[in-house]
Amino acid sequence: MSGKRCEWLGGDERGIARAAELLREGRLVAMPTETVYGLAARADRTEAVAEIYRAKGRPDFNPLIVHVGSRELARSLALFDARADLLAERFWPGPLTLVLPLRQPSAIAPAVTAGLPTIALRQPVHPLAAALLEELNLPLAAPSANRSGSLSPTRAEHVAASLGAAPAAILDGGASARGMESTIVALREDGSWQLLRPGPVTEAELSELLGPATPLREARIEAPGQLARHYSPGKPVRLEALAAESDEFMVGLGEIGGDCTMSEAGDLAEAAARLYACLHEAAASDRPRIAVAPVPEEGIGAAINDRLRRAAAG
C-alpha cells in the first residue's frame, strides 16, 4: 500500500478552507449535512466523479445528488418552473432534493446524471456544508459517504469505518441533525410530480403545495435510494418485532425498549435522527441478527419504514 491517509478536519475556517482546497483539486472530501454525511467531489469533473464511484463501489446506473450553495447556481444547472421555485422557496436550504430537467449545454459530468436528461439538486442547510459551498461556488456531487448499499453515516466516525482512507479528508461536523437522507421529488414536464424517495419533508407537506402525487410506475432508477436492497447493516433484519429473540440485537421505539432505542418517547422525528446510529450499533454488536420495533406508517414514519424495508430486503 502507498500509505495513503485521510485528513480529519475540524469545522473551523481552517478546516473549511482545506476542504475547499482539496475539492478544487478534484479530491474527495466527506462533508456533514443535516441529513447524512456526503462524499463530495466536483460535479463538473469526470475524473473526480469517477473517484466517488470507485470509493463507494456504486452501480453506474444510480445518479448522484448535486449540492449547491445558492438557488442561482441551481438555476444555472436545471430548468426551474413555478413549482420548483415554490418548493425551493419553502424548503431550501433543507432536506429536499428536486429532480428537474438538465439545462443544456451542461458542464455537469455525465456520470453524475447517469446519462439521464434530469439532474437531482439540493441546497443543504448544515452550516459547515453551506460555508464550504459558499467558499467554493461550485456544484458538488455528494452521495452518502459509505460503501454502496450499506448503512448511511451520521457521524464522521461512521465515514471512517466504512470508507477508510478513500476520501482525502473528512470534515467533522458532529452528529447529523436529521439523520436520514433527503426527500426526493421529481417534477415532470407534463405538470405531474412523483415522490422518488420519502424523507424528512413529508408527502403531505408536498401535496399541500402541489396537489396529489402521481404514483411511480416505472422501474427506472432516477435518484439515489431507489434500489430494492439498500441501507444494509450486513445482518438479517426482522421488522415489526415486539421483543428480541436470544440472538437478536433489539432496536426499540416508544414502549418497546431495546439495546438501542430510537426514541423512548416514541417521537418519530427523534427516531429518524437516531435510526442509523442504532443500526450502526446493531451492526457492530456480537449478535448475528437484528430486530426492530414497529414504526407507525405516518408522517416521517413512512420514510423510516422505507429505509427499514430496504435494509431487510434480501
Would you give the CATH topology of the largest domain?
DHBP synthase
For the residues shown, what is the average pLDDT?
92
For the termini, the CA-CA separation is 34 Å
Number of strands: 14
Structural class: alpha/beta
CATH architecture of the largest domain: Alpha-Beta Complex
Outline:
The chain is an alpha/beta fold.
Question: Can you characterise this structure?
Answer:
With 314 residues, this protein is of the alpha/beta class. It folds into two domains: 7-210, DHBP synthase (Alpha-Beta Complex); 237-312, no CATH class. The chain is 32% helix and 17% strand. The chain has helices at 13-24, 46-56, 71-77, 82-91, 110-113, 127-136, 156-163, 203-210, 268-284, 301-312; strands at residues 7-9, 29-31, 38-42, 65-67, 96-101, 118-122, 140-141, 169-171, 183-187, 193-197, 237-238, 248-252, 260-261, 289-292. Helix 1 crosses helix 6 (127-136). The longest helix is centred in the last third of the chain and has 17 residues, at 268-284.
Write the layout of secondary structure elements.
Elements: E1 7-9, H1 13-24, E2 29-31, E3 38-42, H2 46-56, E4 65-67, H3 71-77, H4 82-91, E5 96-101, H5 110-113, E6 118-122, H6 127-136, E7 140-141, H7 156-163, E8 169-171, E9 183-187, E10 193-197, H8 203-210, E11 237-238, E12 248-252, E13 260-261, H9 268-284, E14 289-292, H10 301-312
Parallel strand pairs: 1-8, 2-8, 4-6, 5-9, 11-14, 12-13, 12-14
Antiparallel strand pairs: 2-3, 3-7, 4-7, 5-6, 9-10
